[in-house]
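In practice, a research group might receive sequence data for several interacting partners and want a quick structural hypothesis before committing to experiments. The following worked case mirrors that situation: the sequences arrive first, and a predicted assembly follows.
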Amino acid sequence: MKQVQYSLSRWMEGGGPEAEIVISSRVRAARNIKDYPFSCLAAEQETAMVLEKINDMVLNKDKFADFIYLPMEDISELVKQALVEKHLISPYLAYESSNGALLLRKDEAVSIMINEEDHLRIQAILPGLMLEEAWQDTGYYDDLLESELDYAFDEQYGYLTTCPTNVGTGLRASVMLHLPALIMTGQINRFLGALPQVGLTVRGLYGEGTEITGNLVQVSNQVTLGHSEEEIISNLASVISQLIEQEKNARQGMLDKKRAELTDKAWRALGILKYAQVIGSTEAVQLISDLRLGYDLGLIKAVDHRLLNELLVLIRPGCLQLLAGKELEHNERNLERPIQIKQALDRFREKNQ
Amino acid sequence: MKQVQYSLSRWMEGGGPEAEIVISSRVRAARNIKDYPFSCLAAEQETAMVLEKINDMVLNKDKFADFIYLPMEDISELVKQALVEKHLISPYLAYESSNGALLLRKDEAVSIMINEEDHLRIQAILPGLMLEEAWQDTGYYDDLLESELDYAFDEQYGYLTTCPTNVGTGLRASVMLHLPALIMTGQINRFLGALPQVGLTVRGLYGEGTEITGNLVQVSNQVTLGHSEEEIISNLASVISQLIEQEKNARQGMLDKKRAELTDKAWRALGILKYAQVIGSTEAVQLISDLRLGYDLGLIKAVDHRLLNELLVLIRPGCLQLLAGKELEHNERNLERPIQIKQALDRFREKNQ
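A structural hypothesis for the assembly, expressed as tokens:
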């Protein structure tokens, strides 16, 4: 599955609304088929039946002609890891599922995970602030699937799911934000305290339990029960728009006071990314953040969002090893990382000359 | 005096023996004319007489045809500062002398200072380990001058000088060393303690009272009384050769253990020097040291000693302002420094393509 390493997912192309702050918007719906045990509790035989049932319905259908079908057992560990790093599948599907499979739309904007914790996880991920669009994409495929499958649904609770936090609409919406100014000025702490009170969760780049690095913050709804889909999306969108406004103000404040320093930081980041011979992923993410901020403030023009998003993904262990074409130990990855970064920068420069 | 900013002094050209550790070798003789008061104690009228006497002897003489004559009162503060930064004159001559003047050989290897603390300071500075050669150069001009001037000389004490530490041979020999491995491993401390016991002094890049930065260390004889010129030179040369050997061993040890790290450090230094937009002189000197070590260990080839020496000088405030063509405040210098560094790197790359 070569395309995983070289193709950019739709969200990585950049260019959506508020792209100078919002990296991507993601919506996913959790669904289960009536009368089948939940995937994570089911025997292998039962998950195989679920997989077969969904496949019968989907494969060779015109409406899914632009999807590729990737059973987890057929793809290498590195390709799985790269799919996780590109936010196209969950770690659970990659490493813990029984008869797990992915239906991936060719532009890599829509992922339908089969036999994740739930029978179906329908996800759309788009660049910039496109929560509504991602919700519509998810809904479109949700409706397509529901037209042929009987979902487990309860009049009182809504869609039934494995994890209680997904019961109800089964909808999880999340936005990946680049918030260097709020983080550097410490203003982020105000939000970190307040967001849980309005039903939202803040996480690092790679979801639950990951630390905030590179000033990248993921904000998502905490529960799906007791709220309509509209409420979930609009509640998140409203908080995100406040975060965007605050981040813009904080950036303007920094720009007024520290223009030379920020310019220097961005250019140094580029210099180090171009010239370093050994580089860890945490440092790389931080340098990419410095460069991104410089670009978004108009202080450096030598990059663009597409390149910055590509760098963010290719420095991850799975993508890095796929690009290198071989498995690499931790230390070897720290030597390979600057090579792949340099190649991406060179490709960008050649294309833009 | 445009040549001060663009010309490289002979020592900056690089290429002497042990150039991977020894940056330059310098010897100077302090001399006074009999029956004239020492310059630093003399009235202005008296220093004027000394200046006139020496000029009569020197100017328009064939043997000094390759010298230029620079009275301190005729040259700008910036040019003076640049001459100090290039180690061609002392800060005393530049800023405190009365009727001070410089006779500078056009290759900038020999400086004859008039009305420094002493009537005459004859200095030769050469690249690499060339103490003998520098001593010979100094001796040559010392003899030339002595053939026409009556020096203040005492049978018992030798040459009489203003400062008691110069009485005797009046000879001060010093070597500028790049000792990153001894400094990084802390082995330097052994030497710092021992050198005064053998009559030697250790200083930073800009002499007395300056800190060691960029792993650059100046070692010179402490007193000149009670030792012959031969003893002074050979004592210093012997200690220097031990320092060189220890530094070589320490470098080999680092290379065996930390090749990737040292390569990375050198390349990052180059990246930052090329891309930074704001840079202070202390950081610049440290980066130049990292780059120099990488070059001397064969880990990076994108530079040479000539460029590294040029960088070491052009980042200093005086040279920097001369190159910029205007006076600059501290903050403005930190913005100008990376511009001049980048231009020097570009000139080097163009020349070596």
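Before designing any experiment, note the following. Residues 30 and 170 of chain A are 5 Å apart (CA to CA). Chain A touches chain B at residues 260-261, 263-264, 267-268, 270-272, 274-279, 335 (CB under 8 Å).
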